């Protein structure tokens, strides 16, 4: 669901199925709550998990003049001078990363607290264009640290701020966020990559926290009559498999349990004696939960007789960092689509990556990602390359793209020495909505183009030349039941692989005179989530691999390219903090080569289209990943 700023009534009308997504009620005994009478003079306070290297440290808190580390007796162990408000932290084996807001400068600030309880110098983020109301940290599975900043008027930002808990010298803006108005509190559950944000008079929303995630939200809890909140959603805290939420005006604490990918209400506890509490922190103990509750008078500790059920083990998907990103494609919006790799046999380091701009043409990039050619020839969707094409009296390498302006095959000669592309014309097809394309070179040296239509029709053309002009002969046709796009040919074994987007990857004999019987390679489900998009073949010395863009979960699945098509695993392309390159997501096309292109590409190169360009946000582009990193992550031969 996309984000809209609607009134509560309008919001729930728009969400006709809103109540179906609400937490289910679970009948449990009302948990007993005991609130301490001792008042702590702090407006922001958080429990610390037990830290072996920092024995006795119990909590972080903001005093009127400093940020403090406090022991179990309430004594100050260490402090960072300044006027701060709101805070969050993440612990690692050697210390704490702490985020807070400098009230005087109105800037988010990070500090590192080491095992010796010494504070680093503050690291300030650039000033935002909005007043910061709240902030929260998020640590991904690759130990990159992000900071979410929330403004009251529905504005927010996500920043990359640290790597392995160490603040970056130059934090990077990942993306701008459109958030609910009247938001002031957020929390992130790192395990499920969930960002929770309050909308004071409406409820609490969940977003995906990942740097490559789409900006989509779902309701967790709403104000009555659409949910169980009496008046207003305020501060919250997350634990593995649990969420605790304050209904401040009613002085209620709502408890939620995560089960089967949905929330269940586990009870409501009345906070007697507190005046509109707005912040809380929780940690698990042997007897339940220990809380820190903050209202206008200050903070109090409390014990809650409630133990959330154990969280299921989160599945960890390998993350691989790109080493290069290309310049952005010229067109705005969803424009980049499919790459191909042209190998310069004489000088592999001068090889080229071709990429389609489906709103305007064909682009060529060098191995550093710099654009070296831009042919504005029309709306090209998919492109592929084969060497050794006889064009009249000269031999060239050949690139062919699907041209959606003319439903044609668009052909380009590639100079074998320089890699320079030149337009050599088009071949008409009878397709009504041309879409995907790949090429195949048979054992006799004939080059074929296989192209498809959105209705599932595939046409196979044998390419040649007449009087020095490219030509094509239709030699075969077949059809899938639903929409395809990606395809790839394994020239060495004369096999063709095609992707039926919402169904499966299929294979068949690639030869023009062979039967068109489809054999299933892998179906939607498990690691593969629709849409199935780009396909590529890595031809190794010992084994060939099929790489699949599983667009529905922003991942890449690898299977062996020979029956029984053994699944070898999946990976994601995450950001490279050191080089300031964002990851890849919503990938349409991809390509891979096993050719030794030198340097990091000595074992081959994987190129993927990036559907969500971030850090900073901009036009779509392509990411380069060394195949050696894929092989290591998935233990490939």
Descriptive account of the structure:
- The protein has two helices and 50 strands.
- It is mostly beta strands and 637 residues long.
- A five-stranded mixed β-sheet has the order 1-22-21-20-19, with no helix packed on it. A five-stranded mixed β-sheet has the order 26-47-46-45-44, covered by helices on one side. A four-stranded antiparallel β-sheet has the order 2-25-24-23, with no helix packed on it.
- Residues 1-20 have low confidence and may be disordered.
Keywords:
five-stranded mixed sheet; mainly beta; 2% helix; elongated; 637 residues; disordered N terminus
In angstroms, what is the radius of gyration? 28 Å
Overall geometry? elongated
User: Percent helix among the residues?
Assistant: under 10%
Quaternary state of this entry equals single chain
Number of helices, counting only DSSP H or I runs of 4 residues or more: 2
Arithmetic mean pLDDT = 92
Number of strands: 50
Q: Which segments are poorly predicted (pLDDT under 50) over 5 or more consecutive residues?
A: 1-20
The secondary-structure class comes to mainly beta
Measure the end-to-end span: 42 Å
User: Into which percentage range does the β-strand content fall?
Assistant: over 45%
What summary fits the major beta sheet?
Answer: 5 strands, mixed
User: Major sheet: order of its strands?
Assistant: 1-22-21-20-19
